[in-house]
Structure to design on (567 residues):
């Protein structure tokens, strides 16, 4: 990975009439060649962030830059480097995919016809039909192709696989990987945690407009170490286990404690040997656990 | 910018064709009526001049009386004062309010603004395309009048006729431009922008038509664009100062307001 492609500094957006900011001092960076997953519940601020990056809406405070250029002051220059897919794909229904690619390609001034043809083939898109006659999934393919077709340095994708069948999702993941290998920074918002875990190098979790956690997906500390689900004889024992500091406790509910070794598996098992254990299972930590840890009840 | 204009015109080619057909049919029908109306001009003038004051202005192009046997007065009262501008104002306002408004409400505006295209350039492209539509119907109408007018004994200098058609198209365009400016600058919805432009355009037409007949409208009517639209002068090759100031004001001031408002406002 290389230089910072997307640089967001204390970006804040407060909509008129709203008491709370939709985005609150968001700071994050995405490097060239990195796929960054932006996760959060509905209304958390994902789309607001994307719309700010594209200068569709104006920030209340803070700033953001793409490829070193300010997204507000240098918006035209910024967009020479950007490919964008909206969350709710909106295309002109009466025109065909080919007509739209031609039009948007002229506006982008970077028509890469060979790559466009390759994308059409790989996504099995139908660019001859009026877009309004296509199914949701096929419209989504057209939307994805228009975002990728000029091989931009930065891809900003809002819920990109919505409506795609699993085969086409695979094609999309490989296109994103190829873009990242080419050096593009990919900023992708998603609800789909399994998809994010599979596709992204790093994720950020946003809640109520604030970035509450960032996680390296390839980080063995978090995702390479197993998680132990330990059932004790009673809640008091569980509380005692939850209070120790040899392992990282993820949660404790009644007599059940979910924890992860801090230093080594052997050390954790040695600690557990001091307890009267009624049940024990092990699993790999996944992004969903991480997400729920931050989005669970009361989190 | 040119790409946007060409794209818009391509998307609108069918609609433009039908607006041209509509304008030509309407103009042809009115032209064809002239010989028979001229032959009965005395009776027609009497009928019109005996109408209640409130209705007379609508038939005479705002004047107190009219001689429909005179080709210029006929064209003024029957074609250029109301028929053509009203048709073209409808085209202009629906397009003016919709050209950005529809793209914004359907979110296709995002596809355009995600490209290296400034909001100012997009605005200029949309406004230019709107103007081209109006000029196409205006020039087509001029062509029909220039070719077929003499066949119906309507002889107007070609230059004056072209000038009148273009100024009528520009006058009609001004209301659509107003709707475009209102939407672009203020986030007024497409419908609200349409309503305001219609009120100024058609409300103004009614007020201007009745203004010479009622004293209390004498001063308020000076704030109405239609008051300065005098096709009889245009057919004579003259542009009134009032109309020139109004058009310059709408297009120059409107452009500044639209640009200042649109460049920094949030897109829905």
């Amino acid at each position: 990975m290389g230089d910072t492609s997307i640089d967001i500094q204390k970006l804040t957006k407060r909509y008129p009439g709203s008491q709370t900011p939709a985005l609150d001092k968001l700071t994050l960076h995405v490097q060239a060649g990195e796929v960054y997953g932006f996760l959060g519940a509905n209304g958390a601020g994902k789309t607001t962030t994307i719309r700010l990056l594209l200068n569709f809406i104006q920030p209340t405070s803070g700033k953001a830059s793409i490829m070193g250029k300010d997204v507000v002051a240098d918006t035209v220059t910024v967009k020479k480097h950007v490919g964008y897919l909206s969350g709710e794909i909106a295309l002109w229904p009466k025109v065909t995919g080919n007509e739209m690619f031609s039009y948007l390609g002229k506006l982008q001034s970077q028509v890469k016809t060979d790559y466009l043809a390759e994308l059409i083939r790989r996504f099995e898109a139908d660019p001859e039909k009026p877009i309004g006659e296509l199914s949701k999934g096929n419209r989504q393919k057209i939307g994805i192709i228009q975002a990728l077709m000029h091989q931009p340095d930065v891809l900003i994708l809002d819920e990109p696989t919505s409506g795609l069948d699993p085969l086409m999702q695979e094609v999309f993941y490989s296109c994103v990987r190829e873009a990242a290998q080419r050096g593009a920074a990919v900023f992708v918002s998603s609800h789909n945690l399994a998809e994010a875990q599979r596709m992204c190098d790093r994720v950020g979790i946003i809640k109520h407009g604030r970035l509450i956690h960032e996680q390296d997906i390839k980080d063995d500390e978090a995702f390479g170490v197993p998680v132990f689900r330990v059932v004790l004889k009673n809640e008091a024992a569980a509380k005692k286990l939850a209070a120790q500091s040899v392992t990282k406790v993820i949660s404790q509910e009644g007599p059940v404690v979910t924890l992860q070794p801090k230093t080594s598996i052997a050390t954790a098992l040695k600690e557990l040997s001091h307890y009267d254990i009624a049940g024990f299972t092990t699993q790999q930590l996944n992004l969903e656990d991480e997400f729920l840890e931050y989005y669970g009840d009361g989190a | 910018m040119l790409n946007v204009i060409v794209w818009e015109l391509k998307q609108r080619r069918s609609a433009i064709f039908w607006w041209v057909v509509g304008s030509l049919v309407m103009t042809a029908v009115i032209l064809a009526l002239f010989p028979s109306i001229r032959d009965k001009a005395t009776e027609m003038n009497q009928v019109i001049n005996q109408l209640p004051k409130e209705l007379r202005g609508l038939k005479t192009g705002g004047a107190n009386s009219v001689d429909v046997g005179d080709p210029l007065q006929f064209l003024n009262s029957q074609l250029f004062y109301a028929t053509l501008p009203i048709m073209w104002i409808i085209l202009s306002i629906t397009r003016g309010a919709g050209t950005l408004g529809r793209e914004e409400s359907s979110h296709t505006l995002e596809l355009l603004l995600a490209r290296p295209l400034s909001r100012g350039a997009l605005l200029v492209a949309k406004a230019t395309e709107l103007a081209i539509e109006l000029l196409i119907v205006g020039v087509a109408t001029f062509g029909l009048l220039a070719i077929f007018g003499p066949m119906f004994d309507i002889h107007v200098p070609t230059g004056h006729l072209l000038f009148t058609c273009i100024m009528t198209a520009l006058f009609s365009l001004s209301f659509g431009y107003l709707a475009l400016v209102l939407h672009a600058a203020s986030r007024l919805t497409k419908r609200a922008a349409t309503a305001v432009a219609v009120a100024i355009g058609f409300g103004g037409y009614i007020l201007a038509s009745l203004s010479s007949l009622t004293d209390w409208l004498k001063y308020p009517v000076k704030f109405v664009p239609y008051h300065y639209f005098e096709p009889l002068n245009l057919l004579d090759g003259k542009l009134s100062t009032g109309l020139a100031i109004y058009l310059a004001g709408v297009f120059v001031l409107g452009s500044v307001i639209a640009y200042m408002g649109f460049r920094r406002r949030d897109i829905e």
User: Anything to note?
Assistant: DSSP finds eleven helices and 14 strands in chain A. The interface with chain B takes residues 51, 54-58, 75-77, 79-80, 82, 84, 86, 88, 90-92, 94-95, 103-104, 106-109, 146 of chain A (CB under 8 Å). Chain A has a mean pLDDT of 89.
